[in-house]
Design brief:
Keywords: Signal
Number of strands: 0
Helix content: 55-70%
Order of helices and strands: HHHHHHHH
InterPro entries: DUF2059
Pfam family, one: DUF2059
Protein name: DUF2059 domain-containing protein
Organism: Methylobacterium jeotgali
């Protein structure tokens, strides 16, 4: 089962206009011509450069969409995991608190690095014109309201999915038992 923050991040991506995974097909791999031993392998084709304005729009859209909030919960999760691992040694609490607090600026840099990666992903999937349209939406009152309601929507969706999953699981099992019973098989 998904952990709640991970599920929320996935659902957030699904709810953000333009953030759905691209439906692309990869071209069939081409067979490379045999090379003579000692011949250097040709370099992979360079990725097209993304302009600074394209990347800035991608970053704006990613942050305005609320996706950046999912990164905010990751660092505290690391802190909690480390604290749980050292729980058996209470004498380390004070020093551990100081160390974790001292690492906060570094952790913020790591979060900013992930934001940059996410912005680059957005820019690689959406044109500058598309990002501009999406940014315009997120700047609008409706866009701001949309983003503001996402945490509540995601919480309700997580709860609804849990109930739905259980209901569908039971329904499918009943149907499978009935169909297998018609074929002379009794399932427990």
């Amino acid at each position: 089962m998904f952990r709640r923050p991970a599920l929320a991040a996935i659902l957030a991506l699904a709810l953000v206009p333009g953030a759905a995974p691209a439906q692309t097909t990869k071209p069939a791999p081409q067979k490379a011509a045999p090379q003579k031993p000692g011949t250097p392998t040709p370099a992979a084709a360079p990725q097209p450069e993304i302009s600074a304005s394209h990347l800035a729009l991608a970053r704006e859209v990613m942050l305005a969409s609320g996706i950046g909030r999912s990164f905010d919960s990751i660092i505290p999760t690391f802190d909690q995991q480390i604290r749980q691992q050292t729980l058996t040694r209470p004498e380390l609490s004070k020093d551990l608190d100081e160390v974790l607090n001292g690492l906060q600026p570094e952790m913020e840099l790591q979060k900013q690095r992930m934001i940059d990666i996410a912005a680059r992903i957005y820019a690689s999937q959406l044109s500058e014109a598309e990002l501009n349209d999406i940014a315009t939406f997120f700047r609008s009152p409706a866009g701001k309201r949309y983003v503001g309601t996402q945490p509540q929507i995601l919480d309700q969706m997580v709860q609804a999915m849990q109930g739905w999953t259980q209901e569908v699981s039971q329904y499918v099992m009943i149907r499978v038992r009935a169909e297998m019973g018609k074929r002379g098989h009794e399932l427990q």
